[in-house]
Amino acid sequence: MKKVLVINSSARALRSHSRKLTEVFIDHWKTIHTDPIINFRELGSTDVPHINENWIAAAFKPAAARSEEEIEALKTSDTYISELREADVIVLASPMYNWSIPSALKAYIDQVLRVNETWKFNPANMQNPYIGLLENKTLFLLLSRGAQGYEKGEYNEHMNFQSNYLKTVFNIIGISNIHVIAINGESFAPEDFKKSIDTSHQNIKDLIEMELAHIVLEN
Ligand SMILES: Cc1cc2nc3c(=O)[nH]c(=O)nc-3n(C[C@H](O)[C@H](O)[C@H](O)COP(=O)(O)O)c2cc1C
Questions:
Q1: Cα torsion angle, 41, 78, 105, 103, sign
Q2: Which atom of ligand 1 is nearest to the CA of 17?
C-alpha cells in the first residue's frame, strides 16, 4: 500500500485554493484505495522553526559528535525527514507569495535539505555535487497563483521562483518524478481561474490514474 504525505503551506484555511487541490487529490485517492494511509504535515498555520547556528553546526558534523543542544536543534528536522522517508507519494500544496513560496515552506525546505540525510556530497562532480538520498518517490506539486503567464515561454516565466525552485530542491534530494499542477489568475482573471480549477481537478485525477497504472506495470 502506497503511503501518502500531504503538506499544506497556505496561510489561508477555508479560502485556500491550494488546500482545495489537496482535497481533490485525497478524495480521488480514497475512491481507489479502500484503506489508504495518508499523513499530514501542516506548515501554513504553524510556526516552522528556522534553522539557526546550533542547527547548522549539528547538521555538518557526525551524529556521534553532537552535543545535547545540537541534537535538540535537529529534532524538527528529524521529524520532517522521517515523514518524507516514509512517504511513497508526497502531495505539496503551495500558493505563490511574492513570486516565490510562503516563508513557512521555505523554512521547511531548510529543515529537510540536510547533508547525509536527504542528500550527500559528491566530490567527483563539482558541477553537480549533490546526490539525492530519497528514492522511489512521486511528488505532486499543487500550486495556486493570483496572476498568469508563469509557464515556460510565457510572459511571466522570469518571475516564477515557485515551481522552478520547488522542482530544483526536490530534485536535489532525489525526487525526480514530479507532477506540477498549477491554477492561475485568482487575482486578475476570474473566468480563466475558474477554467484552470476545473482543468486542474481533472489533471489531478488523470495523474493519479497514470501513476497507479505505472505501479501495476512495474510490479
Ligand atoms: C502575501 C501574498 C503574496 C502574493 N504574491 C503573489 C505573486 O507574487 N504572484 C501571484 O501570481 N500571486 C500572488 N499572490 C496571490 C496568491 O498566489 C493566490 O491568491 C493563491 O491562490 C493563494 O493560494 P491559496 O488560495 O492556497 O491561499 C499573493 C497572495 C498573497 C496573500
A1: positive
A2: 25
Domain extent at residue 61:
3-218
Number of domains in the chain: 1
- Give me the DSSP letters along 94-110: EE-BTTB--HHHHHHHH
Q: Is the pLDDT of residue 219 over 50?
A: no
For the CA of 148, the nearest atom of ligand 1 = 11
What is the pLDDT, as a whole number, of residue 217? Answer: 54
Q: Which of 14, 187, 192, 196 to mutate to test the pocket of ligand 1 (most atoms within 8 A of CB)?
A: 187
12: Cβ below 6 Å to ligand 1? yes
Please report, in angstroms and rounded to a whole number, the separation of the first and last CA atoms in the chain.
12
- Per DSSP, the three-state class of 7 is strand
Average pLDDT value for the chain: 96
Per-residue pLDDT of 126-168, as tens digits, reads 999 999 999 999 999 999 999 999 999 999 999 999 999 999 9
Report residue 212's pLDDT band, with 50, 70 and 90 as the boundaries: confident
Distance from C-alpha of 219 to C-alpha of 214, rounded to nearest angstrom: 9
How far does the centroid of ligand 1 lie from the alpha carbon of residue 162, in Å?
11
CATH number for the domain including 151? 3.40.50.360
